[in-house]
Amino acid sequence: xxxxxxxxxxxxxxxxxxxxxxxxxxxxxxxxxxxxxxxxxxxxxxxxxxxxxxxxxxxxxxxxxxxxxxxxxxxxxxxxxxxxxxxxxxxxxxxxxxxxxxxxxxxxxxxxxxxxxxxxxxxxxxxxxxxxxxxxxxxxxxxxxxxxxxx
Length: 151
What we know:
two-stranded antiparallel ribbon; mainly alpha
């Protein structure tokens, strides 16, 4: 049986986090990088890959990773993905329905929101894969207030 690197409590050999203090545990055979160990736990994938996948299908994959992966970095990306892409989908849906009532709104709002969503999707996936917690100014603050601040 292994022991926690932070508090010394006994942890299971394959545990991702210490049951006593919650500190992440380094898995045997983890691949070190310049930023420290990349630990493959819970979802069986590296933290940067899990963070990137939070954005893959917008708020849907954000919700999936929010529920199944409790690592702080992955939680940050999952929460931000839910807020950003959920809000963009709501705005786009309103634009589609409002287009029937106000002619021209649909042709203006939907493409602009689609372009913003595509650019954010690419940038956020690249930043997450690089291991960077890129905070989208308004969305990250909303995510922090809705879900609590990620560690």
